[in-house]
Amino acid sequence: MSRSRKRDDAGFGRVVEFVADSVDFEPDYYNDDYLGRRVTARMRRRDADSYDAYLRELRSDSEEQAALLDALTVNVTSFFRNVEMWEALRPVLRELTSEHRRVRVWNAPCADGREPYSLSMLAHDDPDINERRLRITATDIDGAALDAAREGVYETTRTTDIGEELSPLSDPEQYVERDGDSFRVRDGIKRPISFERHDLIRDEAKSGFHLVFCRNLLIYIDTEYKRPVYDTVTGALEPGGYFVVGMTESLPRDLRGGFETVDKRRRIYRRREAGEE
Ligand SMILES: C[S@@+](CC[C@H](N)C(=O)[O-])C[C@H]1O[C@@H](n2cnc3c(N)ncnc32)[C@H](O)[C@@H]1O
């Protein structure tokens, strides 16, 4: 359902307005399908049979506000998410680290850090990638996710199997210290990465990167804000630099002329240099 149709539902509009005013979350960035699904899931949990009934609960219960914020913040991620993309990235990293003394990578958004750590681990694991040349800037809007990322400790739970997530590596224990269900990322893997808070819609542009990841955020973002995010992340690339989006995302049509497709299915693109067809 489009933004206008869904927000025409006055009750839904009132819930969104309350979120905008009272919860530390910017609903305008996100599309209504996504917001609607998250709010409805909370309504079901609270047995609220209308948006207004749910709004009353939200107003009177700060725990429900926190639960809704948690439901709205999509920081689902994993180590080596879509493992075939990481395989396809090996030749790109081999090439970049053989050509440049410093390979600057921007990982946005990085959620709890498992994506930039996957990159650092892959670089250490592949003998033909010079991991000492990598510098990774990993950013996210969510301060709590960044704290978890800096800490770099991940637990296997009923729903998340960290050992399984790390299975693409030949010897994961070179890169994480395992204590039962707890996995602590080793210092050597952390070293090339700096974590920073950055809002891809509001904050200043960045520049000078040889590789930019922007995976699994744009699917949730409202049409109006997609373009500024694409402009920010692609504008940060050096000519000839590589760009990776999520496997269910795609480069907007009008940006495609500026990029060569390196791997269509794995969504890896390369920014054309001046004069390149
Ligand atoms: C689904 S996760 C994707 C993480 C990782 N890239 C991956 O593919 O596994 C989406 C992340 O986007 C972050 N996010 C949401 N809005 C953002 C914004 N405006 N600027 C930067 N990060 C944002 C969320 O905090 C969340 O951590």
From TrEMBL:
Gene3D superfamilies: Chemotaxis receptor methyltransferase CheR, N-terminal domain, Vaccinia Virus protein VP39. SUPFAM superfamilies: Chemotaxis receptor methyltransferase CheR, N-terminal domain, S-adenosyl-L-methionine-dependent methyltransferases. Signal peptide: none annotated. Pfam families: CheR (PF01739), CheR_N (PF03705). It catalyses: L-glutamyl-[protein] + S-adenosyl-L-methionine = [protein]-L-glutamate 5-O-methyl ester + S-adenosyl-L-homocysteine. Its EC number is 2.1.1.80. GO terms for molecular function: protein-glutamate O-methyltransferase activity. This is protein-glutamate O-methyltransferase. It comes from Halobium salinum.
